[in-house]
Design a protein that fits this description.
single chain; six-stranded parallel β-sheet; 20% strand; disordered N terminus; disordered C terminus
């Protein structure tokens, strides 16, 4: 039964961005019917994980944002999928802005009128592919302690605005790294050491000031262009002690103040939240004049009016040939310090008094520790990650084994949901496998380190190792599957041997197929039309005629 959320409300709202899933070509070839947000991770729809993160954080005002073309499939899933219908009340809302398409940037989404209208407070932005075991309430506590102004928290929402933001990054070079996983380049500066003792589970020791952020690919392009990576003098003057991280990844968890919407509106050239909004905001804390050039100072002071001369001079995000975008290259200007000099001082001033002069609020970075006992935190945006994280979650003890109080928030009730469907003389390693409802497993089968979706059929003598099967898959008699991902309602013919393969939904793999490192997809829709074939023949004939004339 759905139940009410027991955690106190935070006053924040959450936006979950449900993108097209271009990184899953095998399984989202038709993103309208099979959007990325509904791909299963350990037998739960992908979007269930960020929704669950919100509820565990105490955020109940949750909005899913998707293109209009995908709204039908996601709405159906919200009303029929047992994991989504079992969510607590109040249920998430779904918004599909008319101008949102598969190529709209994340910052551009926040510029859409429908989104600006629904955001009424400070808010959290999450991707639909986030799997985060870490308690979001601890992130919010850290943000409130280090980046929130008491006048903004308890006041009437009048400028100047003082609340800062927070982003999350995690290490990709873990004990089981995923080949080709995206990484980001960030530069952080340490925060003052707390004078009071902290609890062992506090996240404050892992917080720092974010001073620079960009994707690793952009960094490589920049270094190739400039043949070096000099650092701006102003950054070093503001922060003599810096830490550069190149193997971490942006989790796309952002706690943002409401005023950031006006900042994005002021700068039409901001396309993404991570690279553009967060990157420029971080630089504005230490680069002299950048805050005013970006219109950030004007937004913080509550002045939205911009003259045509300013628009012409600044063009949103100012970019010049001598200082390319996202570049910390040396200049001889004088720079302000970051964080804002009066930020902590004004937090300790009288109750609701605001500063007489506006300063750029800080953007903080939470760097997730890379320990074996650290809570799971990953984005799942490639097929390799989909398989790896599903298999990792399959190893969690079930609620039946660990007990309700000690189980992970991602634990399933049972490892084998429908034991009646498993025939005798089968081998299933329950400690590292998950078998969903209504799965039929015939005799002499072997299932090791695998996740089997609902309504699957595993025929006699089949052997599965480190595989992920989505709902309704049929594995034929005597098949041998190793590290494979099988899409919904696909079927593998008997006697087939597949290794490191992806099988598209609804695809029939012919019996006795042997394949390795392949994406098995239907050619439907790829055939040339009669008109295209005729045009090709005409081109060939013209080419032959030209050759004869030249001869």
């Amino acid at each position: 039964m759905p139940h009410a959320v027991s955690m106190p409300a935070t006053g924040l709202q959450a936006l979950i961005l449900c993108g097209p899933g271009s990184s899953f070509p095998t399984f989202t070839s038709n993103p309208d019917e099979n959007p990325k947000a509904l791909l299963p991770i350990a037998n739960r729809p992908m979007v269930w994980y960020p929704i669950d993160f919100c509820y565990r954080t105490g955020i109940t005002k949750i909005t899913l944002i998707c293109p209009p073309s995908a709204a039908g499939a996601i709405t159906t899933a919200l009303n029929t999928n047992p994991f989504l219908t079992g969510l607590p009340h109040p249920r998430p809302d779904l918004v599909a802005p008319q101008d949102l398409d598969l190529n709209t940037g994340t910052a551009e989404i926040l510029r859409l009128p429908e989104i600006r209208e629904l955001v009424t407070s400070d808010f959290v932005v999450l991707p639909c592919d986030l799997v985060c075991e870490l308690g979001g309430d601890k992130l919010l506590q850290s943000w409130m302690v280090k980046a929130v102004s008491l006048p903004d928290l308890l006041g009437d929402g009048e400028p100047p605005y003082c609340n800062g933001g927070l982003g999350v990054w995690y290490e990709t070079k873990t004990a089981t790294p995923i080949k080709g996983e995206e990484t980001d380049f960030i530069i952080t500066a340490p925060m003052p050491t707390p004078t009071l003792p902290m609890s062992k589970d506090s996240l404050l020791p892992h917080l720092s000031y974010l001073t620079y952020s960009m994707p690793k690919d952009s960094l490589n392009d920049l270094i190739d262009e400039k043949k070096s990576f000099p650092i701006r003098h102003g950054l070093l003057r503001s922060h003599p002690k810096l830490k550069m991280l190149t193997t971490h990844r942006d989790a796309h968890i952002y706690i943002l103040p409401k005023w950031i919407l006006d900042f994005i509106q002021e700068n039409e050239r901001l396309e993404t939240i991570g690279e553009d909004v967060i990157g420029w905001w971080a630089k504005a804390n230490w680069e002299t004049g950048l805050s005013a050039k970006l219109g950030l100072k004007r937004v913080i002071e509550g002045r939205r009016e911009t003259s045509e001369a300013d628009k012409s001079a600044h063009g949103g995000v100012g970019r010049t040939d001598s200082s390319p975008p996202n570049s910390p290259f040396v200049t001889q200007e004088h720079y302000e310090t970051s964080p804002p000099a009066g930020f902590h001082k004004r937090q300790n001033d009288g109750l609701l008094s605001k500063p007489t002069e506006s300063t750029t609020p800080p953007i903080l970075a939470y760097i997730h520790p890379n320990r074996e006992d650290a809570p799971l935190l990953r984005r799942v945006d490639t097929a390799q990650l989909l398989l790896a994280i599903s298999l990792q979650l399959a190893k969690l003890p079930s609620v039946e084994e660990a007990g309700l109080d000690n189980a992970s928030p991602f634990a399933h009730a049972k490892k084998v949901a429908y034991p009646e469907g498993v025939k005798p003389r089968t081998t299933i390693t329950r400690q590292d496998s998950l078998i969903a409802d209504n799965v039929m497993v015939e005799e002499k089968t072997s299932i090791k380190e695998s996740v089997i979706g609902a309504n699957c059929q595993i025929k006699e003598g089949a052997k599965l190792f480190q595989c992920l099967l989505m709902d309704g898959v049929v594995v034929g008699k005597g098949c041998k599957l190793t590290r494979c991902i099988l899409g919904k309602r696909s079927e593998v013919g008997e006697g087939s041997t597949l290794t490191d393969c992806e099988v598209q939904e609804n695809l029939l793999v012919e019996p006795r197929t042997e394949d390795k490192d392949s994406k098995l997809m239907s050619s439907s829709g790829l055939e040339a039309s009669e008109q295209e074939m005729q045009e090709a023949l005409d081109d060939i004939e013209e080419g032959d005629g030209d050759a004869a004339m030249l001869g």
